[in-house]
User: Fold Gamma-soluble NSF attachment protein from Thermococcus chitonophagus.
Amino acid sequence: MDIDLLMSTPEELEREGYQRIKEGKIKDGVKMLVRAAKGYEEKRDIQKAASLYKEAGALLRDKLGLYEQAKPLMLRAAYLYLKVIEGEIDKPEVNLERLTNSCLNVIEAFTFLGDQEHVRKYAEEFAKMYEDLGSNYEEAGEIESAIVAYESAYRYYDLLNNKEGVERIAGRLVEIYGKIAEDAIENEMYEESAEAFERVANYIKTIFGYDERYRELMETAGKHYEKASKLAYAEGDLETMTRLLLKAQYAYLLARNFNRANLIGVNLIKMLNQVIENYRSSGRFDVVGDKLIELAEALVGLGKFENAMKIYREALEETGGRIDIRARIRISTIKYIAAKEMSLDLLRVLDAIDFLMKHAKFLDAMELAEEAIRKYEEGEKILKFMYQAEGVR
Assistant:
């Protein structure tokens, strides 16, 4: 269809841009998106404008290889996201999700541009900003918001390799999650206590490394996941039971209690096969894919990568190739390698991946995970099986 570039609304230009991209007319589509972004800027919808500039820049680079033409669009996006951040911080109630996404986009944009000076500059600003926010939320008793803010501060201090900042924030999070674990145990909420122990372990390792303290806390997390799974079984909730046993398997794995991890893994595989068969026979195909990825992860936890990737392929087919499932199989692989190699570096990579996953940055998480897997002796072989399952040659 013909569209009047001068009279059309930003919404119309955006729709037309995406339609042309869908038709394979990438360059024309990008032009429409840029015009739409300018229109949104004029309407003072800064966040929408920023997202379209960023997307247009990424399309120019990734689809057309026009890196130089992409740079001004990405730079424009970065400065608009900084405006969004300024506006958000000035509000009486900060929307942490919007703030976090904007901060991530600023770092991504300057990384895209290869501008390490600005990456460091804004990472430092964001780390301090989130630390202050976390402290304010903690003082106000808004613990969930404090955790979100502190975990963001942790990520930016880690990005900067600021050991003092990382350890300071880790200390705050250990205290917060320790209290959550105590309260959960008191109320016999074993899944919640297991998750809290796992988080305490995660931040303890930042201070002391992959040592006995970390392993003991992960062992405790494993025991609490097992308790929670038994309660689910008693209630006839097999879906929850298998999910919790998988968490127990990996908690024991990272605790380097390989005997317990393997025993749970072997039993879990039998249970999952039965659960999947029952769901298929009863027509509950909506959950088959999720149980198949659990089965693949259980096999990874036993080091059976070739078998795991065959099941992974089935999981992809059942779920239409869901991107979160692609990320999960990579995370499971890194956990297995981290445990076997007793690698603190890999645990730190998992911190960054976890942060990206929480904010739905699945492609970035996958890329980071693959970089880590490649460094392992058998990494290329594992990735080859993975790519074959995904239909990548």
Remarks:
- The mean pLDDT is 94.
- Residues 1-91 form one domain.
- The first helix runs from residue 10 to 22.
